[in-house]
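Can anyone check this?
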Amino acid sequence: MISLLPAVTYLLLHSFPSLGLSPPRLASSNFVRPSTCKSSPQHPRCTFGDVRIWAESPLTDAVNGDVAISADVTTIVNGDSPNIVQTNGDALTTSVDGDSDISPSLAGGTSQDTSSQPSTTTTSSSTKPPFPLVLWRFTRPHTLIGSALAIPSIFLLASPTYSSFFTTRTLAALAYAAVPSLLMNLYITGLNQITDVEIDKINKPDLPLAKGDLEKSTGIAVVLVALAISLGMSVLHPVYSTAGLQVALWGSFILGTLYSLPPFRMKRHPLLAAFCIVAVRGTIINAGFYSHALSAAFSATKEAAANVGVMHCLLNDWKCSLSSLFFGVFGIVIALMKDVPDARGDRIFNIKSFTVRVGQKRVFHAMKNLLTVLFGVVGGGMMKYATMAPTRGASLRRGLVGLGCWIAGWSTNQEAREVNAEDSGKVYNYYMHLWKLFYLSYLALPFVK
């Protein structure tokens, strides 16, 4: 339980801004006095009253603490509750507490009248979407769907026969694993959003916290409740709280916390960040739930259930080890491709991802090629494995899975042909295409045996 303290302490401190306990602001130096501006080809900067702006590249990115300017220099976000801010050419017009002020030009020129321009405002309480919809967006649905598909597919893979999956005992063990798993997914993705609000205002401005649709205190309450229920279910039931389920949930909790939470923030280090995602998406989920399925659903005795731990499955069951390897490599692709469209915000906030270090194009093409090779190799292996099947039905299933892998590899390469690796919108769409292939891979998983 000691491992819970850093996460809970951080979340509780950040849920009470009125106490003055707020996250540290981005450090910067040589700020000019209010209502004055300076500019250089490398670092234009300007301050307007209490609003201070620092730009890493000319009129492209600007961040200082709670202040951020978007790539097209059209909006400023000031803290978690901005009023009205807009631009007109080089001039910025701000409205704070009802007082309008036209600032000097970022480039040092004269201000221009912006009264005829539309204002950019945050979402007011009267126009906020319904809370269930906001909560759904807060879960990062593409990751939630991945977890929801993974668990029944792993149960089917572990089942001695397909018919043995459709029993009361199996479905009860499956449901008991699915609920805390989805709640843990919510905790991990929610914690990442809570700690990355300022980065998300640049990289993912439509997320609930970054957009202002969800209060940070509400988000913190949601992830703490999800975490408590998830970890509680991992230890409370005498039959279904298996060692495999505990490895899956506690392993995900520990690595997910280390990935996002200061002072660890493993996401700042590319190798550690990739390790966290690969370990969770590869070994912890696949081997953990495979072991849980054998223990809770498919073991005849308590002694047999005790002998199918995670390491036993990884070392002695080829279905568990190969599926963990496949999704581990797929996890590498997802982990690194995720950072390609986020390069601008990561660079500003000193997140040294592989993309920031070596460039968007190199990472994009490397991950595209890696996934293409993965599907090609697995497809060839399944075709070979189909010729060794004991029955015609098994041979057909394996052959179809092999063919599907080749089609997925072709799709991976084909969809990338028109993508500019430096266009964040197109790369994000391609990234979501890879998630669809991830879903299909889990749907095909039960048919390899």
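Reply from J.R.: I decoded it. The CA atoms of residues 135 and 388 lie 48 Å apart.
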